[in-house]
Design a protein that fits this description.
The complex is a heterodimer.
Chain A: E1 6-9, E2 16-19, H1 23-29, H2 37-47, E3 55-60
Antiparallel strand pairs in A: 1-2
Helix pairs in contact in A: 1-2
Chain B: E1 10-14, H1 45-61, E2 66-72, H2 81-96, E3 100-107, H3 114-122, E4 125-130, H4 135-138, H5 151-163, E5 168-174, H6 181-189, E6 196-199, H7 214-227, H8 235-244, E7 261-264, E8 269-271, E9 285-289, H9 295-299, H10 302-307, H11 316-319, H12 324-327, H13 349-361, H14 374-381, H15 387-412, H16 415-423, H17 425-432, H18 437-447, H19 457-466, H20 499-519, H21 521-530, E10 533-537, E11 545-550, E12 556-560, H22 565-587, E13 598-599, E14 608-609, H23 610-633, H24 638-655, H25 663-677
Parallel strand pairs in B: 1-2, 1-7, 2-3, 3-4, 4-5, 5-6, 10-12
Antiparallel strand pairs in B: 7-8, 8-9, 11-12, 13-14
Classes of the chains: A alpha+beta, B alpha/beta.
Chain lengths: ~60, ~675
């Protein structure tokens, strides 16, 4: 079991669904010097090293 | 056997046939093919012009929206700065007239300095560097002619790319089982590449690779990379995953769709990809040249057709294999066996199969870093979103900033920040919620604390903790004309405002908020909650409107001054639409990774990448809503409302016209379409 995994009831049935803590869940609730490197690295990869455009410039005479 | 025809989209331009290194695993000089000996050392400008003409001709004839050209060698930087500049200009001019051009270069990095970097930046060339790990790993093969290590020179070249991050494409590492895979991965990751790729050493059934398990080596790298949170893409692993989902592979090394690459040698000869040089002398030759033969003629060569023949062109063993769509028989050259040609599985068959099956058995990694409550997602997807929805987005943005600062603390050490959080966690979070904190953090993490005058060590931390670091106070509520990290908009930002300018801004902003309340009341709460700063941009020289949003500055908008509050109100709504959607995209993928399609939209002449088209559509939904309300008061404005509504509706149709949206993206676009569908 991963650290930070919680269990919730799914669809009103007795089946237990495991909901893993996301990197942002960890970042929200953990002091910055204790946020795991793997969680931080996933955030860095997503927002810093993203291939797609970061800026939406607009210029128009309409 | 006949194979389906496809145009060529990827070109490898051999601009130099010699190299300043003497790597013993190089397929150009050390394997069967020795054709380099008879070629000119450099591609002449006349040959480059002919090659560019053929590429442009092919793109125009087949209406290709985009092609890629990779400058290769030998060592491409042996060209020298002047020849390189001229050659790049020729490619940009000639190919750029026919379609969009992605330019790249694969180099050993030894000669890469700031002079070359400025030339490559000016021509928008993304640069990949070959590096096999740390010094001892790299020194096994990548040495100068007399055996001296190339490691220091290459690492200096990589440092240049870290300073010019926009052209840093990544690192290419050739696997050697003698090296420890985890040490190699750690050394590569330490160079902070935006991407890594691993190359199996070229081999055939006649000349098999050194014995051992390549799958085990690669899986050890994968385990380390996954445990580290996959901090950058690794192409081989990502390709295997993407192919497993039915998507594109994006590499020659795996997959059955890998045949759109062709090589142009320094003398203008059309050739098959370089890996063929590992089979027999002359194996890559087609007998055609750019002077006498078109790219269409190249595609009709039997060898090129077979390369692009998909599953039907593979050996019977491969066709019957469960993972054939992900493996694709590996590289064509690796299937070669004298007597049987290429009608064999890859010499790496067992390794590729083990790698793919092991990765397939592991749960798919999610690139997503968070989630939104369903009702918030739905409200924003409808085109609007109230204050509570925006607060939810702001909370996620704060968490992103906290994770980025955690990484900065872990990498560079900043005990002041840790102490400050311990002393007053709420005040610390308020500090991290400021609009340009992410821009600051991204600069720290891409440039490093000592890479630039700003941010540098304690001074950077002081910027964050003081909120000023000696800068003058901003000119007024909502206006931020002084933050040193506000230059994130692609347009130049204005300098500090004079008192008169600040007063004019304040007056027009007051009026614009009134206009928003009247013309876009459903956006007012969200804007009032989410917009923390407006950064003045320098006005456009031709007097047109100018505004922008950056993913690195949630809560800030860049706008050039306009005295018209009605115009400013539209810009506020327009830009905040981008802010909201950008914050959603930070958390949730709405467009499939690798979606390379471009969509036509009414508001721009050029086709747009899918995500950019989605951003534009969401912004125009906001704009159309304002003009709809205005046209209700003044029927003379109905044509203008109709134009924005029709553009938005047509773009929504285009977005729904392919398989490039994720399930969440389909839901998002469906909600937008419901809103627009309710407008008459």
């Amino acid at each position: 079991m991963l650290a930070g995994v919680e269990k919730t009831l799914a669809n009103g049935e007795n089946a237990l669904a495991e909901v893993a803590q996301t990197p942002l869940d960890e970042a929200r609730t953990t002091p910055i010097d204790r946020i795991g490197r793997a969680a931080a690295a996933r955030v860095v990869r997503r927002v810093v090293r993203r291939d797609r455009d970061r800026v939406t410039p607009f210029s128009s005479g309409i | 056997m006949t194979f389906p025809w496809r145009p060529l989209r990827h070109y490898v331009l051999k601009v130099a046939s010699r190299c300043d290194l003497a790597c013993d695993h190089c397929y150009v000089y050390e394997h069967a093919d020795q054709s380099w000996r008879g070629r000119p050392p450099f591609m002449s400008l006349a040959t480059a012009r002919a090659a560019a003409g053929r590429i442009a001709e092919h793109a125009a004839a087949h209406r290709l929206p985009r092609v890629s050209v990779i400058l290769h060698g030998g060592e491409p930087l042996l060209l020298g700065p002047d020849r390189l500049r001229s050659l790049l200009a020729e490619l940009r001019t000639t190919v750029g007239a026919a379609c969009e051009l992605d330019l790249g270069m694969q180099t050993n990095g030894v000669r890469l300095d700031d002079t070359y970097a400025s030339i490559l930046r000016a021509a928008r060339v993304r640069v990949g560097i070959s590096l096999d790990g740390a010094r001892p790993h790299n020194d096994l093969h990548r040495v100068f002619r007399r055996g001296a290590s190339s490691y220091d020179a290459t690492v200096r070249g990589i440092a240049v790319l870290r300073r010019h991050r926009d052209i840093y494409a990544g690192l290419l590492c050739t696997v050697d089982l003698a090296n420890d895979p985890v040490e190699v991965y750690d050394a590569l990751a330490g160079q902070q590449p935006p991407r890594i790729d691993f190359l199996l050493p070229h081999a055939t059934w006649e000349h098999p690779p050194p014995p051992g398990s390549y799958a085990a080596w690669l899986l050890a790298v994968h385990e380390r990379w996954a445990a580290a949170g996959r901090p950058m893409p690794i192409r081989l692993f990502d390709s295997v995953r993407a192919l497993g989902r039915g998507g594109p592979g994006g590499t020659e090394a795996v997959g059955i769709d890998a045949g759109d690459v062709v090589v142009i040698e320094t003398d203008g000869a059309w050739e098959e990809p370089d890996s063929m040089k590992t089979t027999w002398d002359g194996a890559a030759a087609t007998g055609l040249t750019v002077f006498d033969h078109s790219a269409d003629e190249v595609t009709r060569q039997p060898a090129m057709a077979r390369r692009r023949g998909g599953i039907e062109a593979l050996a019977a063993t491969c066709r019957a294999c469960a993972v054939v769509r992900q493996c694709g028989g590996g590289l064509v050259a690796h299937r070669y066996r004298p007597g049987a040609g290429f009608d064999n599985p890859s010499v790496y068959c067992a390794d590729l199969k083990e790698l793919i099956m092991t990765l397939n058995a592991q749960p798919a990694p999610s690139a997503e870093i968070g989630s939104l409550p369903a009702e918030v997602f739905e409200r924003i997807a409808s085109g609007f979103g109230d204050a509570a929805a925006v607060e939810e987005l702001a909370s996620a943005q704060l968490a992103i900033n906290r994770a980025l600062v955690a990484e900065i603390v872990a990498r560079f050490g900043a005990p002041e920040l840790v102490e400050r959080e311990r002393a007053d966690p709420a005040a610390f979070d308020r500090m991290l919620a400021r609009p340009y904190v992410r821009a600051w953090a991204v600069r720290c993490l891409t440039d490093g604390p000592a890479g630039r005058p700003e941010p540098s060590g304690k001074r950077a931390v002081r910027w964050l903790t003081d909120g000023s670091a000696g800068r003058p106070e901003p000119s007024g509520k909502f206006l931020d004309d002084t933050d040193p990290f506000r230059d994130v908009y692609g347009f130049p930002v204005a300098g500090a405002l004079s008192d008169e300018e600040a007063a004019a801004w304040a007056a027009v902003l007051d009026d614009a908020w009134q206009v928003v309340a009247t013309d876009a009341p459903e956006h007012l709460q969200a804007l009032r909650t989410g917009v923390k700063a407006i950064t003045p941009l320098q006005p456009a020289p031709d007097g047109t409107q100018r505004s922008a949003t950056s993913r690195d500055a949630f809560g800030a908008l860049g706008i050039a001054y306009t005295p018209d509050p009605h115009e400013l109100a539209v810009l506020l709504v327009h830009e905040f639409q981008h802010t909201k959607l950008g914050a959603v995209l930070d958390l949730i993928d709405l467009v499939e990774e690798g979606a390379g399609e471009r969509l036509r939209v009414g508001w721009r002449p050029d086709p747009r990448p899918v995500e950019a088209a989605l951003q534009g559509t969401y912004a125009h939904l906001g704009i159309a809503g304002i003009w709809r309300r205005r046209s209700e008061r003044d029927p003379a404005l109905r044509p203008r409302y109709g134009m924005y509504r029709d553009w938005t509706a047509a773009a929504l149709d285009a977005l729904r016209g392919g398989d490039w949206l994720t399930p969440a993206g389909e839901r998002f676009v469906a909600r937008m379409a419901e809103t627009v569908g309710g407008w008459s």
